[in-house]
Amino acid sequence: MKIVFATDLSDANEAAIESRTCLECLDNIGVREVHLLTVVPDNVSSGLPGMDAASDAREALAPQRNVFERAGFEVETHVARGTPHRRINGLAERLDADMIVVGSRGQSPLRNRLIGGTVRNVARTAVRPLLVERIEETASGHAVRKEHLFQDVLYATDFSENAARAYDYFPSLTGATERAYLLHVGDGDAESTATAEERLDELATDLRDRTGFDVETNVRSGNPVDEITAEEERVGATTTLIGARGTSRLRRLLLGSTAESIVARGTNNVLLVPPEAAAPR
Predict the structure, then answer these.
(1) Cα(238)–Cα(134) distance, rounded to whole angstroms?
(2) 240 with 270: CB under 8 angstroms?
(3) Member of which family (predicted)?
């Protein structure tokens, strides 16, 4: 498996890369090749004090590259100039990567933030599965919020085709996932709740047979974003798996409001599977 790991060279992203358990999770799902990418925005010039943007960025990537190499990954580094989300997605498509990984917090010396708008824009335009890894500030610096990325996966489904694509990503997590929690958020109608419970039970049986995971199901009612985040907390999920909606002929992904809110406002790691090129090889 081949991934593009986008970094803004901040302490926050270094914390994600240096987390041994996170590296083990990537190894356990079959990641062998890592393409470490940082993007120098167009408004950063070599005239800034102490900074020749491209060469400084390449030099700054060396410690992060060393961490991956010591963990046994094959690593290539890339420095691009331009709009971050376009360069991230462009490299992933050019390399035919299986996944993009971005950190959700942090600011680099190059003032390129892989949070907020950049992450949302990566998600909106990606045609590769996107892992948003949550990083938090601590008293001693930064740390990943939940280290065991794929150990406990919450899968939120509305039973759409796009949700089914995300469900089909589960087998690629074998080796790292121990438990899966299947969730549907409905309107509280008794009949639709019963139908949803039946459909989730069918998915749970299939998933146990295919992967051997421990699987639980639940149907909640209310606002989808609120209920998904509440379920994340209840079950202790380390990553939320969710499908995105719709893509145009220009391959510009238009996130559904629920997926976008989970990516933008949530505190859990998120694995977002887009409609195209979603199935892992």
Answers:
(1) 10
(2) yes
(3) Belongs to the universal stress protein A family.
Report pLDDT digits (tens) over 147-189. 788 999 999 999 998 899 999 999 999 999 999 999 999 988 9
Is the same domain home to 135 and 231? no
Calpha distance 103→115 (Å, rounded): 7
Is residue 218 situated within a structural domain? yes
% the chain with pLDDT above 90: 49
Which strands sit side by side in the sheet containing 214-221, from one edge to the other?
Answer: 74-81, 33-40, 2-6, 99-103, 130-133, 269-273, 239-243, 152-156, 179-186, 214-221
Predicted confidence (pLDDT) at residue 222 exceeds the cutoff of 80? yes
69: containing domain: 2-144
CA distance 250 to 53: 31
Single residue among 97, 122, 144 that ends a domain in this structure: 144
User: Same domain for 48 and 179?
Assistant: no
State the pLDDT confidence band at 193, using cuts at 50, 70 and 90: very high
Instruction: Give every CB contact of residue 178 below 8 A, 6+ residues apart in sequence.
Output: 151, 152, 213, 214
Specify whether 7 is located in the same domain as 113: yes
C-beta of residue 207 within 8 angstroms of C-beta of residue 241? no
Q: Residue 280's pLDDT is what?
A: 47
My answer on whether 68 and 87 are in the same domain is yes
Residue 65 burial class via C-beta count within 10 angstroms: exposed 0-12, middle 13-18, buried 19 and up? middle
Which residue type does 255 have?
Answer: L
Q: What CATH number does the domain containing 43 carry?
A: 3.40.50.620
Alpha-carbon distance 254 to 277, whole Å? Answer: 15
Q: How many domains are there within the chain?
A: 2
| Tokens matching residue 144 | 């990943």
First to last CA, the chain: 8
